[in-house]
Amino acid sequence: MKKRIIYLMILFMIFTSITGCSGSAQKASDAPADTEDVETSPVGTETLVAYFALSDGSDSSADSSTIESDAVNTSLEKDADLFKISPIDKYPDDPDERYELALEQIENEDYPELDNDIKDLDKYGTIYLIFPTWQGDLPPVICTFLSNESYSGYTIIANITGDGADTCLEHMRDLCPEAEISLP
């Protein structure tokens, strides 16, 4: 009796493996023969929330803690990774000095270097970008962030705090012409 059960089990396993192979072979034949013609998206499917706010909360155009809070909340809502954009050289504490430096950086397109990079950018397809306006335009550090990478094929959703959202969107589209850029 034991031999008969073992024999039946072996037959069952052989039968299921044969039918399983024929099913996968059929599916493989449905696939395109030339995979070079198949276009793949250069961007991933995950979501990133990137934000810029002065660490000391002295940003006069928007409350930095609100920006940080919005970034964290968006990250939780969208099940997204969180990334803080920071320049290597911190901006001056004095608002007048910061204004002059930012104005000079914008006019000369001499954007500050970032002290951090996004790891595995290609795994993301959507980026929520949260930042305040500076003098009605992008903060220079945001210009750096957008200029450092090719965002071709990405969707960038800009959550802009302060006056000048239209100017910011136009500037962002100039820096990333192949990205889809919009407001939330």
Descriptive overview:
There is one protein chain. The chain has helices spanning 2-30, 64-77, 95-108, 140-147, 165-175; strands at 46-51, 81-84, 124-132, 155-161, 180-182. It is of the alpha/beta class and 184 residues long. It has two domains: 2-34; 46-182, Rossmann fold (3-Layer(aba) Sandwich). Strands 2-1-3-4-5 form a five-stranded parallel beta sheet, sandwiched between helices. Strand 3, helix 4 and strand 4 form a beta-alpha-beta unit. The chain starts with a helix and ends with a strand. 23% of the residues are buried. Residues 2-40 have low confidence and may be disordered.
State the gist of this model.
The protein is α/β, with parallel strands linked by helices and 184 residues long. It has helices spanning 2-30, 64-77, 95-108, 140-147, 165-175; strands at 46-51, 81-84, 124-132, 155-161, 180-182.
In which order are the strands of the major sheet placed?
2-1-3-4-5
Helix/sheet category: alpha/beta
What's the CATH architecture name of the largest domain?
Answer: 3-Layer(aba) Sandwich
Would you list the SSEs in sequence order as H and E? HEHEHEHEHE
Residue windows where pLDDT falls under 50 for at least 5 positions? 2-40
- State Rg: 26 Å
The name of the CATH superfamily of the largest domain reads Flavodoxin domain
DSSP helix fraction: 40-55%
Q: CATH topology of the largest domain, which one?
A: Rossmann fold
Total number of helical segments?
5
Distance between the termini: 70 Å
CATH class of the largest domain: Alpha Beta
Question: Would you report the number of β strands?
Answer: 5
